[in-house]
Design brief:
- The chain is 71% helix and 2% strand.
- The model has no long low-confidence stretch (mean pLDDT 88).
- It is an all-alpha fold.
- It is globular, with a radius of gyration of 16 Å.
- The chain contains seven helices and two strands.
- This is DUF2247 family protein.
- It comes from Emticicia aquatica.
Amino acid sequence: MESSDPKKEKRLLEFKEWLIAFKEYSKKVKDIDIIYIDDAEEILNDWYWYTMAEKLYPYMEQGDNSRINHSKIISGKELTIMAIQPIQFEDEITEKKLNAELAWVIAWSILSGWNNYDNDKVEKILDNKEIQLFIKEHMTWLEKLDPEFDYPYFSNAQTWRVFNLYLQEFLKNIN
């Protein structure tokens, strides 16, 4: 990684903060000790930027690389987590579930941060059965995804774009 690139340095710091926060959350809420692969944040950051260059930019319209929308960034972060599988666990099924949960937490963190969602309203939304079903199905999809052979950058980005639009409409109707 080029240490002089501020964007790459910023993403590295974000990965580090997310990993720390997820580890603390898992210990406190689930009583699970999360163990990450060595140098997890550096590996995640390097992979994220590699896939941006190899899986995103070549498929965008010429000259459109200067602004990547939020849904593509979210997609890239989720797929990076699932490709690298930074959480190590004693059984593979739990390991995939924990990595999918980490991917979801990071994606949600990005989406809610950019939109400055009202936390009280968001809690009501996240309790909605349709939203719960979406989250469950999305995490199951992440668990079963094999990014080595299938890297659905754009379709996953569209999923996040539509989910965001749905949330915005839902928020309009909550007092």
